[in-house]
Structure formats: structure tokens, C-alpha cells
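Chapter review. Work through the record for 7-carboxy-7-deazaguanine synthase before attempting the end-of-chapter questions.
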Amino acid sequence: MNAVSASIDAAAAASSDRLRITEIFLSLQGEARDAGWPTVFVRLTGCPLRCQYCDTAYAFHGGQWWEIDAILAEVARHGVRHVCVTGGEPLSQKRCTILLQRLCDAGYVVSLETSGAIDIAAVDPRVSRVLDIKTPGSGEVGRNRWENLPLLTPLDQVKFVLCGRADYEWARDVLAEHGLDQRCDVLFSPSKSELAPRDLADWIVADRLPVKFQMQLHKLLWNDEPGR
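C-alpha cells for 7-carboxy-7-deazaguanine synthase:
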């Protein structure tokens, strides 16, 4: 092996355990099954989707490279049990699955927030995968990877962010067609400023849907402030 090849191999090895990170912070989990728990959020940079209501567009670009060991050290510094790996779309970085495994091995209660556009099969089975099914109102309904749905287990969760009545009826049909409530918890959320929470609540009650209504606790407390 010549010096150039050795240098390239060494650089590849050095970068094999790195992820591009937008932020790591401690807050309250604002949604899903673990809502209310003090949680460390690890926000990875980058996302291939452009949902019209996205509230984390600042994570599309930039970020800093972190060694996975350094990420775990920063998580440990905060001293809580719950960790949420989010984005952007965290699975757009392939080494995200390594981080998830390492967090589980360290004994954390780990959740993953994913758009549902990328294969979830390689995610550690100890992770609660919160899979977002994109509605027509999101502008990205064509990106849904329907092959993910048979992979869901009772540890996982499915989330629909709804922009109006048409989205609600679409999500209601998807729920029934795929029997999602028989696989895992299903969450219906109103898109902020597009759907009145009370309207969504009334529709769920009227239809007696087997879903959990949720609002984002962190937005009620801190609006869209990054790092909260």
C-alpha cells in the first residue's frame, strides 16, 4: 500500500464514527409517548424532505462533525435517562444507526424521530421509532415509504401532522387500511396555525378513532425557540 492509499484509508477510518450535528440540548420531551420527560435531544443535520410546515429548517445545512464517543459523553453530562435522536432526518446519515445502538447499550431510553421516507429496518429494535406519515397537506406525501409499516412493533409510534379536514380524512383512511392501531400507538397532531386543535379533537371524538390526540408541549411552553 502506497502512502497516498494509506492516508486515504486512515482518513476514512477516522471519519467512520462521526455524525454531523446541529445541536445537543436538554429539554422536556414535547410529544409522543414520552411527553413530559426530561430528555436529551441529539439533532442531526440534513433532511431530504421539505415539508411546508417544517419548524426545524435550520437543521437542513451546516452543523458540526462530532465523534460518536463525544456525543455519548455530552449526553451523559446532562444526567437524564431519556434520549431522542431527531433532525432534520436523522436516518439520512447512515451512521445514525451506530449512535442509536450505542445509546441503547449505555442503558438510555431511546427514541428516534424519522420522516418515514427512509428504511427503518436497520434501527436497533430497542429504539422506539416515531415514524411520521406525510399527509397531502405536508407537500411530501409522495415520499412515504409504505414498506416501513409492516416493520412496526408495539414499541414504535406513528404520527400524522394534519393541516385540515382533508388531511384528517386521508389519515383516517390510512389508519383503517393498514390497521395501524393494531401495530403500535398512533398520534394525530394539528399543524400549528393551519388546523384548530379543538376541531381535530372534536373529529377524533366524533369518529371514535383509536388514536391519541396530541399537541406539542414544547411549542406551548417555548414556541419555536431552537434548543428548547
